[in-house]
Amino acid sequence: MKKVLIFTLLIIVCQISILSAQNKKDTRKDTKKKMTEKTFEGKIEKKPWSKSTQSYCARGSEYFVLVLPDQTEHVIQNNSKTDLEALDGQQVKITGKMETRVIKANPMEQRPINPFEKDDGTFRCEVLAVSKIEKK
Fold first, then answer.
1. Distance between CA atoms of 119 and 47, rounded to whole angstroms?
2. Closest to 129 measured CA to CA, from 94, 102, 104
3. Mind listing the pLDDT tens digit for each residue in 8-50?
4. How far is CA 47 from the centre of its chain?
5. How far is it, in rounded angstroms, from Cα 93 to Cα 110?
6. What confidence tens digit (pLDDT) does each residue in 47-103 have?
7. Taking the chain, what is the end-to-end CA distance rounded to the nearest angstrom?
8. Number of neighbouring beta carbons within 10 Å of residue 58
């Protein structure tokens, strides 16, 4: 009976320590995510499809960009539930982070090619992954 009780307590202690370790790991992930997010301010603009690297990076027909005060444009990957159509042409404050998007090329479609890099069939570009948008 004593052995069963000790064994049961040992199992309970192990499970508690495993759950505690997982909780700490999840907290570190959340902290890291928050640390990499930045605030961007500018104007939302809707862009039509074109034969441009920006349009190819957006992976759709029409897409939205954030135009910063220095006229730099970032393709928006909207991870928030905000309707970008309603914000077209307006000044906004975006919380998010820049992410590299890697696109595997389909040999049957046209795609941008960088003459200064080895063409391995992939295309890399930066997108602004949005977690929150506020109207200014």
1. 27
2. 94
3. 666 776 567 665 666 555 544 444 455 588 999 999 999 998 8
4. 20
5. 35
6. 998 888 888 888 878 999 999 999 999 999 988 788 888 999 999 999 999 999 888
7. 69
8. 21
**pTM value surpassing 0.85:** no
Query: What is the rounded distance in angstroms from the CA atom of residue 33 to the CA atom of residue 5?
Result: 43
Residues 6 or more apart in contact with residue 46 via CB below 8 angstroms: 62, 63, 64, 84, 85, 88
Question: Do the beta carbons of residue 124 and residue 72 sit within 8 Å?
Answer: no
What is the amino acid identity at position 5?
L
42 and 69 in contact (C-beta within 8 Å)? yes
Strands 122-135 and 91-104: antiparallel
